[in-house]
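re: ur msg from earlier - yeah i can do the 2-oxoglutaric acid complex, just paste it... oh wait u already did. ok heres what im feeding in:
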Amino acid sequence: MGITATQEQHYQREGWLLTQPFSIAEMRNIRHWVDEVQAWSDNGDWLHYREMTDHGPRLCRTENFIPFHAHLKTLLTSGPIIEIASALLGETAVLYKEKINYKLSGGAGYAPHQDAPAYPFVKTHVSCMIAVDDSLVANGCLEVVNARHQKLLPTNNLGCITDQTVAEMTWQPVEARAGDVLWFHSLTPHRSGTNTSDTDRRAMYPTFNALREGDLRDAYYETKLQEFRETPHTANTVQVSLINDFQGRPVE
Ligand SMILES: O=C(O)CCC(=O)C(=O)O
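and the outut:
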């Protein structure tokens, strides 16, 4: 299952594309596998992150899980996901990194940003959001800006888009049903709100680069962990990224 020429044109023009590559049965499996990762303890080489919410400390992200989950590894490195990533890049894609953002009830949102500054080594990437639960305005779905994926926008001291530029752009929420997959360019401006609903909004985000630029997944995680160790985190938020886009409160 690939994408049509019209879908590809939409992605090239707007910088994002919503697809439905999974059957209901496949989606049920994906949700079950995410439940499994969510239940993992902290004793492992995967990376769990927590935030403080009004309901207490909550898991907000897991990264680096495919070495420890064979089904999720297959999902993100073969089949429709890698096919569509390759079609959108126009060449063979390889997995660069993967994360699950849980955004459980009460979970925080993400400040307006482009992903590219958080991705060392590669020029060409595409990411997607695999909606594990319905992703709606009420529970903090992604909001994007159309056709602004040509260049890096001015950033503030957090590595996010400046207030002035944010105010000049038109932000569009993209709601997705569980199983939908929202593709976006690494320069597509995006943001999301707090989950103010009483339902969870989990989503998996694999990022791909052109294989031509190398298989860099291990190098990405090594560099990220080294930067976390060496660069003091001064923002009053949970550090989950090489930019400070996440607005979650730290668990003291
Ligand atoms: O999951 C979200 O609400 C937004 C995620 C995001 O923008 C990110 O992780 O960079």
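cool cool. The mean pLDDT is 95. ping me if u need the other ligands too
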